[in-house]
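Take our chain:
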Amino acid sequence: MVSGEPNDIHDMDPDEFRDRVHSFEFWFEAVRGYLSDKPYGHRPDLEEEPMEPSERDQLVTVLCNYALGETAALEGASGLVAIAPNRATKLFLATQVVDEARHLEVLLHRLGELGVEDPEGEIERRASPHLSEFRSELLNLVAGKDWEAAIFAQNVVLEAMEFSVFQRHAQNADPITREILIGIIKDERRHIGFGENELGRRLKAAPHNLARLSEVRRRLDPMVLGSFKDVSAEIGLPSSESPELGRSYLSAVERLGFGT
């Protein structure tokens, strides 16, 4: 985890992870530093960088896709609370619901700062069809109460997808968008850590589920990689570097033993 946050959750012992991270206390500690002085995700005195109309239009398209992704994450996490297997897991997911709602709020506000008068209409018009398809698949898994498959799609696949894109975009984003993305990335690491911990323990106890989740992954991968392709040019990523997004995503998924 980045400097200044609680212990790197990816280095924690699994039992320590469950004791610490499944709590609002940990959540307060993790988010306090970048929420308290940043209304709508960035410092109020941070000045807008001049943009050409084409640059602004590209950024609006990108943010519309981000807003759709965060909407899917919000809907998915809120649905998972009801089917979570224990109270500690419900508590963590409650913190994630708050995170996802905050992400969506700051992205919608950023669209307003860029002059978008009807964010909902623009999201509907500009969002990637691959991402829309992924959202539907995720919500179907949640509605079907398939805990392992739903948490895999939500906290491993979707979070790894968003983390990969946001991290790359932050490298060349305007100052306001960069600050917003950096705050969101910190949350995504915590969400991915939860997904890896939860599924890692479950797969250790029931390794036969690996084949079933691998099939879920094969169904979702084309949607993820299609979303990367749709957004790569809009974030200023040269075509030669576009595969890096896919590799970053794949490495996160493969940590759990899911091969290609």
User: Anything to note?
Assistant: Confidence is low (pLDDT under 50) at residues 1-7. The longest helix spans residues 53-83. Residues 1 and 8 are 5 Å apart (CA to CA).
